[in-house]
Amino acid sequence: MTGPRGPMSEECFALRRTWVDPAPGIDMVQIHVVCTPLGAEPDWEEADTRVLTPSDAAPGLRTAVIEAPRRLDGRTDYSLHHFFFVVQGAQSRTSPVFTEEIVAREISYEEPTGDWTHVGIAWGVSPGLPDLAAPNYTVAALDGLGFGDPAAGAPAEPAPIHEFVRAQPLPHVFRGLVWGPRGFDVRYVVHLVRSGSPRPEDDTEVWDDNGGPGWTLTL
Hints:
By secondary structure, this protein is mainly β. The protein has one helix at 162-166, and strands at residues 12-20, 28-36, 48-51, 53-54, 61-69, 78-88, 91-94, 98-111, 118-125, 136-139, 141-142, 172-181, 185-194, 204-208, 215-218. The longest helix is centred in the C-terminal third of the chain and has 5 residues, at 162-166. It is elongated, with a radius of gyration of 20 Å.
């Protein structure tokens, strides 16, 4: 299933939305989602729809993962509008429309040794329960290099850039962007990759999780 339609970047991030049944007997809950520039009214004919599925995390909880653009009309900040369509027996109803401001924030990672050629940020936005955060990945860009996009979403892949990275003065500072609704918490860990070494057996990767809990950033 595609993400919210309309003018948007080819790259998206995953965001979990939730619903709690107010009473037993609800047969289906469907979310309708559309993104617009800040201040614009949504065109619901362009909306993406997904059916929420029951979750084991809490009684009556239903969730769905939607795809939101990393950039809309070239901007990282925009509005995400959604409402719920609820079916109970022969009756149906819709919820009010909820509008959230999606914002991007930069995460920087200082690498003092020069041992790593790629740094990635694995992150997720919690909709209330940390275990429900949908996973995302951003490839961080290294200061001083003329290529790389701090918003790129593809996982880091081996590439012969070892000599370019080693030539940069220390410490190496990598920067990447994360997204979510304003006021929400993003939890993230850092993926360190060494590739293109003169001796291939020296290539490796590790995860820096801050000793276990990772890091948290409030958007």
